[in-house]
Design a protein that fits this description.
By secondary structure, the chain is an alpha+beta fold. It has four helices and four strands. Strands 1-2-4-3 form a four-stranded mixed sheet. A hairpin with a 4-residue loop joins strand 3 and strand 4.
Length: 126
């Protein structure tokens, strides 16, 4: 993806490879942080959200889009993944993510379902 982004954007954007838990930018660098279809793979979601908060300017916004599922399916999925040691993967619901945002000092939390198997959530950095 780094190669594709570099080819498409050239010098119009700074493309860096980094870890969500240790972003390669200074604090208060961005108005927005977006995370699409990857948050469910983060082994330390609190650490990643704290990093998102760190690089956001005051009142900056984070937007997450990720898969989810109705409770019975989500519960079974999360249990099976943990038992089978399939790597770091966890599906979140609205309450899970709201708790994470609160813990990491975000406010104005919004959750919008996207179809029956996804969501888009956003929050503002304090």
């Amino acid at each position: 993806m780094i190669r594709v982004a570099t080819e498409r954007l050239g010098v119009r954007a700074e493309i860096k490879l980094g870890d969500a838990e240790s972003l390669p930018w200074e604090g208060a660098s961005f108005d927005y942080v977006s995370c699409v279809d990857s948050f469910h793979h983060y082994p330390n979601p609190k650490r990643a959200l704290r990093e998102f908060h760190r690089v956001l300017k005051p009142n900056g916004q984070v937007v997450l889009a990720d898969p989810t599922a109705p409770l019975p399916v989500r519960g079974v999925f999360n249990s099976i993944v943990r038992l089978l040691r399939m790597g770091d993967m966890h599906m979140y619901d609205k309450q899970d993510l709201t708790n994470l945002f609160d813990f990491c000092r975000f406010e104005s939390i919004d959750w919008q379902p996207e179809g029956s198997w996804g969501f888009v959530a956003s929050a503002r950095a304090l």
